[in-house]
Design a protein that fits this description.
homodimer; about 350 residues; alpha/beta; 3-stranded mixed beta sheet; 16 strands; about 30% helix
C-alpha cells in the first residue's frame, strides 16, 4: 500500500430521510437498511481497506456519533475520529481532515467518501480510485468520481465532461436538474452523476481552500498549532461556531480550474431515499421488497416492508407502499409520497418534541 | 335487590376475531377494544351490579383465564369463577352454573350474559332484564332478550315473535341468514336479533335440560354431590371430557315450548368483528376511527387504526383499512377482508407455532 494515501469518511449526517428507521440517535450510516448484514459505514470501510491501511483512515462525524463510529469500525483508534461540534456541510468537514493531514503528513494524498453510499462492484471502484490517486499526484488535480447514469434521475447532481477520455477535465457541475433537463443530460452522453467522492493531494486541496474559500483557509490554518493537542476540541468548537456552511462542490469544485473527473460504472447509488432502497432490494415475485422475515403478504405488490426482528406482519391489499415499523414508530405511506417524510417528522416533532425523531 | 337473582357471565372465549389485539393469552373479554377505559367483562359486571349483589355473580370461563377474571372483577371471590377445562359451547357452560345454583340455592333465578357485548343504554337494559326476571318467575318461562334490528345484518341470529306484545312467545329461531332473507326479516317487523342473553328460574332450565338434553342433564346431575367440594375440579374435568358440545339455542331454546322473548332497543352490539368496532368507535371528520393517541393520518379515510400506547403512527393514503399494531404483530388489511383474519392466523401459526396467536 502507498503509505501516503488516506481515506476520509464523511459520516456526519443526522439521518432523517430514512425515518422512522433512521433516527437522530442512529442515522443511516450506522444502519443496515438493505439487509446486507453490515452497516453502510462498515461497508465503506471495508471497501477501502484493501488499498488503505487501517491507521490511514479518518472519519469526520458529529461528536454525538463518535462512539457509534468506533463501535462499527473497531480497527480505528479514537484519534482517527474527528468530531464536528455542528455540521457545516462538506467543505469544513473536508478542511478539518485535510488540515490535520497537512500537519501530520504534508505529502498525504486523500480520498474523501460519504459513509452511506452503496457500491456493488468494489473491485472496479478501487481500480478507479487508484487511477484517481495516480492522476491527482501526477497533475496536482482535484479529482472527482463520475458515475455513468442509467436513468434521468432528478435527485442527483451531474458533471459535464469536456471529452470522452477516461479522465476528463470537468466542464460544468449541475445540481439536481428537472426531469426534462435530466433527460437531455442522459441523451447527450456528456453528463455523469456526481458521486461525491473526491481524490487529491492534501497540498492541492489546501491550496484550493486558500484560493476559493479564504475565510475557511484562515480559520483552519489557525487550527494547525493546536491539532493533536489538548486544546484541539475547544479550538475546533470555535472554528465551527463561526465558519460558513458550504459544500465542497459549490465552494471549490465548481470554481477551481484543475478539476478532473474519472467516470465509470461500478454499481453506485447514494441510497438516498426509501425508493432507492426499494430499487436495490431483492424482490419477491410480486415485486415486494421485504428484507425482514416474518412478513405475510396478501394481494400486495411493489411494496417495501421493514419490520423489527422477532415481529410478525400480516399485510393485505397494498400496492406501491412503504411500510416501516420500528419499536416506537409505524409509518405507512405510498412510495410516491416518500418526499413527505420530512413533513411527517415535523408534525410528529411538533406534538412530541424530539422523542420520536 | 331480590336475593334469589344471580348473574352468570359466560367468559370462556379464546379470542381470535380481534387478532392480533386479542390473543389466546388475552381474549377480547379482557380487552378495552373500544377505548372506553374498561374491559368488556368489567363493563358487563358493572351493567348488572345495580341489580345483582356482588356475591350473586358467577363467571364461567376457561380455567386458563381464572386469574384474569379475578383481576378484572376483584369484587368476586375465587369460588365465583367456574372453570371449564375445555370449551363445549354454551349449553354445558350454562349447565355448570345452573346445576351449581340448583345445589346452593334451589329457588335461584338467573340471567345469563356473554362477557363481551356492548350495551349503550344500560338503564333501559336493566329494566328489561327486571321484566324478564318477573315474567320468568311468574310463568316458568325461558326468557331470551331480542333486539330491534336496524339493518339486515347477516352475522346475527334472529328470533321471530308470535305477536307484538312486549313479551311474546317465540315462533322461531333462525341462525345467520343470507342477505336476502335478512332483508325480508327486517321488513316483516316480526324478527329481532338474538342477543344471547337469557333469564330463567334455575328450576325451569334444569327441567329443560332433563327434557331436551338428557345426556347433559345426567352428567351434570351426577356432579351435584361433589360441587363445592375438593373433588369438584376432577369431576368437572371428567364431565367436560365426555359431554357433547352444543349451544343452548340449538339444544334447548329452539325446542322448548315455554320460550318467550322480551324485545327492546338498548344500543346492543356483540362487537364481534373489527368492522363492528369501527362502527361503534368515535370517528374523525374523515370517518377514521382512531382510538389511540399518537396517530398522524394523511389522505386516509374510513379506516380503523389501533396502535400501542406510547407509539406513534404516520399513515398516508389508506381508504377503508384496518391497521392494528401490537408489540409483536402488525396487521394491515382492507376492512372488507376482515373475514380473512382466521386465514392470517392459520398461516402465522403454521410458520411460528402458537407464539404470535
Amino acid at each position: 500500500m502507498n503509505t501516503n494515501r488516506y481515506c476520509v469518511i464523511m459520516a456526519g449526517g443526522i439521518g432523517s430521510r430514512f425515518w422512522p428507521k433512521s433516527r437522530q440517535t442512529m442515522p443511516k450510516q450506522f444502519l443496515d437498511i438493505l439487509g446486507t448484514g453490515k452497516s453502510f459505514i462498515r461497508h465503506t470501510y471495508e471497501r477501502f481497506a484493501p488499498m488503505i491501511a487501517p491507521d490511514h483512515f479518518l472519519v469526520v462525524t458529529n461528536r454525538r456519533y463518535r462512539d457509534l463510529v468506533l463501535e462499527h469500525l473497531p480497527e480505528l483508534k479514537p484519534e482517527q475520529v474527528l468530531c464536528e461540534p455542528v455540521g457545516r456541510n462538506t467543505a469544513p468537514c473536508i478542511a478539518y481532515a485535510a488540515y490535520l493531514l497537512r500537519k501530520t503528513d504534508p505529502a498525504a494524498e486523500m480520498v474523501v467518501t460519504p459513509a452511506d453510499h452503496l457500491i456493488l462492484d468494489e473491485t472496479t471502484f478501487r481500480s478507479i480510485i487508484g487511477e484517481c490517486f495516480d492522476y491527482a499526484a501526477a497533475n496536482g488535480a482535484l479529482m472527482t468520481v463520475g458515475v455513468q447514469p442509467t436513468r434521468p434521475d432528478t435527485g442527483y447532481g451531474y458533471i459535464q465532461v469536456s471529452d470522452d477520455a477516461p479522465i476528463s477535465k470537468v466542464k460544468c457541475f449541475t445540481e439536481k436538474p428537472d426531469l426534462a433537463m435530466a433527460q437531455t443530460f442522459l441523451q447527450s452522453g456528456e453528463f455523469f452523476w456526481n458521486s461525491g467522492i473526491f481524490v487529491w493531494q492534501v497540498s492541492s486541496i489546501v491550496a484550493a481552500f486558500a484560493k476559493y474559500l479564504p475565510e475557511h483557509h484562515q480559520l483552519f490554518e489557525q487550527l494547525l498549532p493546536v491539532l493533536r493537542t489538548a486544546d484541539e476540541e475547544a479550538a475546533v468548537e470555535r472554528v465551527f461556531a463561526v465558519c460558513r456552511a458550504v459544500s465542497i462542490d459549490y465552494g471549490i469544485m465548481e470554481k477551481a480550474d484543475n478539476v478532473f473527473v474519472r467516470c465509470g460504472e461500478f454499481g453506485w447509488s447514494d441510497v438516498g431515499t426509501w425508493g432507492s432502497v426499494y430499487q436495490h432490494a431483492r424482490k419477491d415475485r410480486y415485486a415486494n421488497a421485504v428484507p425482514s422475515e416474518g412478513c405475510y403478504l396478501y394481494d400486495t405488490r411493489s411494496s417495501l416492508v421493514s419490520i423489527p426482528k422477532e415481529k410478525v406482519a400480516v399485510i393485505s391489499g397494498l400496492k406501491d407502499y412503504i411500510v416501516v415499523d420500528t419499536e416506537d414508530v409505524l409509518m405507512i405511506c405510498p412510495r410516491s409520497e416518500e418526499q413527505n417524510i420530512k413533513k411527517y417528522i415535523d408534525e410528529v416533532k411538533f406534538h412530541n418534541g424530539e422523542r420520536y425523531i
